[in-house]
Amino acid sequence: MICLLAPPADEKYETARIKQLRQGNYEVLLPETTEQLSDMIRSLTVKPIRLPEIFLNGFLRLRLPLLEEHTNVLKSLLEHDYPYLNQRYQELNQISCPTLILWGREDQLFTVDGAHYFLKLIPKSEAIIFDDCGHFMAIDKPLEVAESIVTFLNHHCNCQ
């Protein structure tokens, strides 16, 4: 069984945020300041999250030493892999196991139609779209996401 949580979809499902990222504005996903981090969290969630400044600063302090490495990885993915995603995704029709696709209706990376894109590609797939939910589904809808995955696993698992 496979569970996909809003994976990168075809270019036609991109939002302005992904377009910014592809133009080299990496702070969209790799924030360098507390303001950028707050903006990223705010844009990728629907549920208002009030994180203490100390938490934001601590998170950044842990990530900043790896920022250059993360930027290089992201840049490489966008330059070398992303242009060929659609071709590689055509192989998804060979997946023979049940697949659950989860998506937030207000996802600000790829539009909700990305879920339907994967539904068409993957046989034996089903999608659950969460209302009032962004890309960070585990923040916006933690219980619903967990329950959906457990229900899917229980439904398709042959074990007790």
Description:
It holds the Pfam family Abhydrolase_1. Residues 70-142 form the AB hydrolase-1 domain. This is AB hydrolase-1 domain-containing protein. The chain is mostly helical. The chain has eight helices and three strands. Helix 6 links the parallel strand 2 (99-104) and strand 3 (125-130). The mean pLDDT is 90.
Throw out a few tags for this protein.
160 residues, mainly alpha, Rossmann fold, three-stranded parallel β-sheet, 3 strands, 48% helix, 10% strand
Topology (elements, then pairings):
Elements: E1 2-5, H1 16-22, H2 34-44, H3 53-63, H4 67-81, H5 85-89, E2 99-104, H6 113-121, E3 125-130, H7 137-140, H8 142-156
Parallel strand pairs: 1-2, 2-3
Strands of the widest sheet, in order across it, are 1-2-3
* CATH architectural grouping: 3-Layer(aba) Sandwich
Radius of gyration: 17 Å
What structural class is derived from the secondary structure elements? Answer: mainly alpha
Per DSSP, the total helix count is: 8
Number of domains: 1
End-to-end C-alpha gap: 16 Å
Morphology: globular
Looking at how many chains there are and whether they match, the oligomeric state comes to single chain
Order of helices and strands: EHHHHHEHEHH
Low-confidence spans = none
CATH class bucket: Alpha Beta
How is the main sheet built?
A: 3 strands, parallel
Strand content: 5-15%
Q: Tell me how many strands there are.
A: 3
Mean pLDDT: 90
Per the CATH scheme, the topology name is Rossmann fold
Q: Would you identify the CATH H-level superfamily?
A: Alpha/Beta hydrolase fold, catalytic domain
Measured as a percent range, the helix fraction is 40-55%
